[in-house]
Amino acid sequence: AGTWKSERVIASRQGPHLRLAGGGAGILNFCANNYLGLSSHPEVIRAGVETLEQFGAGLSSVRFICGTQSIHKDLEEKIARFHQREDAILYASCFDANAGIFEALLTPEDAVLSDELNHASIIDGIRLCKANKYRYKHMDMQDLEAKLQEAQKHRLRLVATDGAFSMDGDIAPLWEICQLAEKYEALVFIDECHATGFLGPNGRGTDELLGVMDKVTIINSTLGKALGGAAGGYTTGPKPLVDLLRQRSRPYLFSNSLPPAVVGCAAKALDLLMESNAIAQSMAAKTQRFRSKMTAAGFTISGQDHPICPVMLGDARLASVMADDMLSRGIYVIGFSYPVVPKGKARIRVQISAVHSDEDIDRCVEAFTEVGRKHGALP
Ligand code: PLP
């Protein structure tokens, strides 16, 4: 069906220009979540090396036994400050943060209302909890309101949504969601993996972009994308919630502490973002350049103003063959097909980074136009 996923092997650091194993130097990379180019930023790497030397390779322990170092506490405090929240708790990944939160917070008396296109880790986290489950149509506020009315009989209601949706590059209508949450006395949870560091004037995320920083209760996000790209995730929000997670959240209680090098890299990435908003702002014009040139060439790009730019193709084989042909022209992109996206909605997901040059973007558009014509995706 054209849905088999093989892995290409990279023989260099992550960045806009890659070397592939077995040849292929100078490949232009358009599919990392390295939105700000911090994955290979010299100061981030130096901070990682220094923290590795000072604090060791790892803790060989979970946090509550002998796995909490001063750097873990410092990073949690920094994350909370970055998001203007009371407290934060680290996990080995955001997948773990999402796996831990719903079960720890919600009981069979409660309800969770989830966007149907939420990330797999939110879906799995919700599966693990015993709350009553409602799934509303993607970004459909009428449907969310109807589900909130139905859920009024439960003790506590939690609306859960991605801030920015990773497959479509669209942004949740958080203003409307928060208004409905107020009306029906619900809490709002957002997954900010594809927003933290670069959406909003200071890169705080979707809640900053849409003016609802004081209305969203809980944020889960990752250190493994814009914030240095190594690994790690977190929950940030009210202190009593974070206290509860430290006692109850299973991926936190039963999994190793975040390695010091990873902590050092993420802490430096946050420092860079808090020193100035220039990095956070650096990507918007490039995203705009790619989206407008591709649209002018005749492609359909899903989403709104987000560096995730899905080139919609429909057919899984077409997406896969076009991605291979792009690579033969020196452009690294990947086709996404079922089960990662719904059947019949295959696409090539292009991701723009602050470290792409205008020439890189123009080369990518030219290659897409040639390949698209060759395979009949363009007239
Ligand atoms: N949530 C969203 C929306 C994601 O895109 C991802 C990663 O793909 C995750 C959670 C998981 O993040 P991590 O890689 O930190 O486990």
Word description of this protein:
With 379 residues, the protein is α/β, with parallel strands linked by helices. It has helices at 42-55, 63-66, 70-83, 94-105, 120-128, 141-150, 174-183, 206-209, 239-248, 250-253, 260-275, 278-281, 284-297, 316-328, 358-374, and strands spanning 17-20, 23-29, 87-91, 111-115, 132-136, 157-162, 186-191, 218-222, 233-237, 308-314, 331-332, 335-336, 346-351. It has 2 domains: 17-30 and 277-375, Aspartate Aminotransferase, domain 1, CATH 3.90.1150; 42-275, 3-Layer(aba) Sandwich (Aspartate Aminotransferase, domain 2). The protein contains 15 helices and 13 strands. The strands form 3 sheets. Strands 3-9-8-7-6-4-5 form a 7-stranded mixed β-sheet, sandwiched between helices. Helix 7 (174-183) links the parallel strand 6 (157-162) and strand 7 (186-191). The longest helix is centred in the last third of the chain and has 17 residues, at 358-374. It is globular, with a radius of gyration of 21 Å. The model has no long low-confidence stretch (mean pLDDT 96). It binds pyridoxal-5'-phosphate. Pyridoxal-5'-phosphate binds next to helix 4.
